[in-house]
Every structure is written in structure tokens, then in C-alpha cells.
Design a protein that fits this description.
The protein is an alpha/beta fold. It has a single domain, classed as Rossmann fold. The chain has 8 helices and 9 strands. The protein has helices at about 15-25, 40-50, 65-80, 105-130, 155-175, 200-205, 215-225, 245; strands spanning about 5-10, 30-35, 55-60, 85-90, 135-140, 180-185, 190, 215, 235-240. The strands form 2 sheets. A 7-stranded parallel sheet has the order 3-2-1-4-5-6-9, with helices on both faces. A two-stranded parallel ribbon has the order 7-8. Helix 1 (about 15-25) packs across helix 7, helix 3 (about 65-80) packs parallel to helix 4 and helix 4 (about 105-130) runs parallel beside helix 5. The N and C termini lie far apart (about 40 Å). The model has no long low-confidence stretch (mean pLDDT about 95).
């Protein structure tokens, strides 16, 4: 898939799935505005991309902060003259038993996972509407938005809501030639998960295809949905989980 001349924003892209998406976009010819909360991660990730001869501008900061969101859009326009793609990948997972889950954790999950995604989509869509050239939006959901998962009630709730947001925005955005979709990754090998004892072996055992996803597996699906080849797909969620949601055995 070619992204020559496209300009893309990717949040939560200092490592893991977000970085894999940013790298693949840049390798396909896109100019990438890369965001991460951690300034060092953002700049290190941008260096990875530029060292691979890609074009990438890092913007660090809280992806749910309205000023950072607007900075991402403004940077795309000031640096490259336009925006084509916005991928709201940033999210947080705060585990906790439902019976004593704390309000602080609940509202932090909603602020980042829902607020950051909603308002990035809003800011990006306003820019795309102004340009009158169309574009693509993508949210990152999770299989926990489809199947119950212990200690992740708030997180799963936030991810299911993103999928409904994508459906609803079809009504708002289609007339402006903007498509909007969602990916829902299952167990994925990232910097965080590979450090968890037994993660890879457990998910290899309970995933029908015999292994958890790599970040490249997820990035490949994301790139398809924001590519020109997927322009007639909108309001949809693509689950990338090696078949886990078909059988849903618990890792516990």
C-alpha cells in the first residue's frame, strides 16, 4: 500500500503498536506526526523512523489534552500543508476489581481512551472538512470491548464505546468523504506484555492460531483501513486476535 504524500497523525506511538503503525506509514511514503506522552519515547521513536529514511515529526504530550490535540493538527498543516489520516491509538489500561475500582482510575481511563480519541477525531475532521479532500480516521479498540475480561470493566467499556463512536461518525463524516473505522487487537507482544511472566506461552495456548499477535500484525490491519484501498469501508471494526474471540478462553 502506498502512502506517498499522505500526512498522518498517530498518537501513543512511542513504542508498541503505535510505533509499528508509524513506521509502516513512513516506509510507505507518508509524513508522520508522532505523539507520545513520554517526550523521550516520542523523540526516540521519531529517530527510528528518520533513520529508516522516513519523515517524522515528534510531538510529545497528553493525547487527551485539547491543546496537544490541536498542536498535532496544526503541526501537520504547518509542516506539510495538510492532513490526510488521524489514528487515535493512545490508551491506558488500569486494572482493578469492580467492587473497589476507584473513581480516579475510572475517569482517567475515560479521559484518555475516550476523550483523547473523540477530540482528536473532531479536530482532524474539522481540518479535513476545511480541506475538502476527504481522509481517514481510525480508533484503536480491543477484544475486551467484545468479550468480558477480568478486572477490566472500565477499560472494556471504553473500548466498546470507541466502536460505537466510529459507527455514529459515519452519519457525520461521510458527506465530507471521510471514512472512520476501528481496529480491535487481541493479545499482542509489546514491550509491556513480553515482560509479563507467562504472557506469550499463555496466549499461545489459548489463541486458535497458536500465538499472540505481533505489533506488525496489528499495524498491517491498521494501514489497510486508512489506505485508499479501504475508502468504501466505514463504521466497521476489524478484530485482529488469531481467533480468540470466537472461543474466548480466559487467560486466568
Amino acid at each position: 500500500m502506498s502512502f506517498n504524500g499522505k500526512v498522518a497523525i498517530v498518537t501513543g506511538a512511542g513504542q508498541g503498536i503505535g510505533l509499528a503503525i508509524g513506521r509502516k506509514l513512513a516506509n510507505g511514503g507518508a509524513h508522520v506526526i508522532l505523539n507520545d506522552l513520554d517526550e523521550k519515547l516520542a523523540h526516540d521513536a521519531a529517530k527510528v523512523i528518520t533513520n529508516e529514511k522516513g519523515i517524522c515529526v515528534p510531538v510529545s504530550g497528553d493525547s487527551s489534552d485539547l491543546s496537544i490535540i490541536q498542536q498535532l493538527v496544526d503541526t501537520a498543516v504547518s509542516q506539510f500543508g495538510k492532513l490526510d489520516i488521524a489514528i487515535a491509538n493512545a490508551g491506558i489500561t488500569l486494572y482493578g476489581d469492580f467492587f473497589d475500582y476507584q473513581p480516579g482510575s475510572f475517569f482517567e481511563v475515560m479521559k484518555v481512551n475516550l476523550g483523547g480519541s473523540f477530540f482528536l477525531a473532531q479536530a482532524a475532521a474539522n481540518q479535513l472538512k476545511k480541506q475538502e479532500t476527504g481522509g481517514s480516521l481510525l480508533f484503536t479498540s480491543s477484544v475486551t470491548g467484545h468479550q468480558a475480561h477480568k478486572n477490566l470493566a472500565a477499560y472494556g467499556m471504553s473500548k466498546a464505546a470507541l466502536e460505537m463512536l466510529a459507527k455514529n461518525l459515519v452519519i457525520e463524516l461521510s458527506q465530507h468523504k471521510i471514512n472512520v473505522n476501528t481496529i480491535a487487537p487481541g493479545a499482542t507482544l509489546t514491550e509491556r506484555t513480553v515482560s509479563e511472566p507467562g504472557y506469550e506461552s499463555t496466549w499461545s495456548r489459548i489463541t486458535p492460531l497458536g500465538r499472540p499477535a505481533t505489533v506488525e500484525d496489528i499495524a498491517n490491519a491498521a494501514l489497510f483501513l486508512v489506505s485508499d484501498e479501504a475508502k468504501h469501508i466505514t463504521g466497521q471494526t476489524l478484530i485482529i486476535d488469531g481467533g480468540w474471540t470466537s472461543v474466548s478462553p480466559s487467560p486466568y
